[in-house]
Amino acid sequence: MKKITSALVALGLGVALSTSVQATSNSDEAVAERIKAVGSVCIEGDDSCGGAAAVAAPVAARSGEKVYATKCAACHDAGVAGAPKFGTSEWADRGAKGIDALLASAINGLNAMPPRGLCADCSDDELKGAIQHMMDSAQ
After folding, report:
1. pLDDT by residue (tens digit) across 31-88?
2. Residue in 106, 98, 97 with CA at minimum distance from that of residue 124
């Protein structure tokens, strides 16, 4: 029984392999079809693509208050890992450094804060707005 099963399996594999080989064509056209590009990229101003590429609309900058509320508050509300708390005199002290120095620290990261804090998609101006919002909160 074992020999018959093995023979049937071998026969089945042989049929499957020969069918697979026959179905695959090695003509130049068939090879070109199998390796052709899946898509293409059209760059704005390139007319060879059949027309102008779609241009994404500019995204409006988020306010400092919005950036703070959605990104910075996670750490600065509670003072996580030594982050200066929102609404405290800690921001008045930091304000003495100047907004540009604070922005550089936010962009590059400082102590436990990673570069750009939790806002990898923030522009420098949005970060600056959030810092100004935190400095304005100082009591």
Report:
1. 888 888 887 777 777 777 765 555 566 678 889 899 989 999 999 998 888 888 988 8
2. 106
Contact 38, 29 (CB under 8 A): no
Is there a single domain that holds both residue 68 and residue 123? yes
Residue 5, classed as helix, strand or coil, is helix
Phi, psi of 32 (to 5 degrees): -60, -40
Range of the domain at 110: 64-136
99, 71: one domain: yes
5 and 13 in contact (C-beta within 8 Å)? no
Cα distance from N-terminal residue to C-terminal residue, the chain: 89
Q: CA separation (Å) from 125 to 29, 58, 63, 110, 117?
A: 54, 15, 9, 18, 14
Cα 80 to Cα 71: distance, rounded to the nearest angstrom: 13
Give percent of the chain with pLDDT exceeding 70: 74
Note the pTM of the prediction, 2 decimals: 0.57
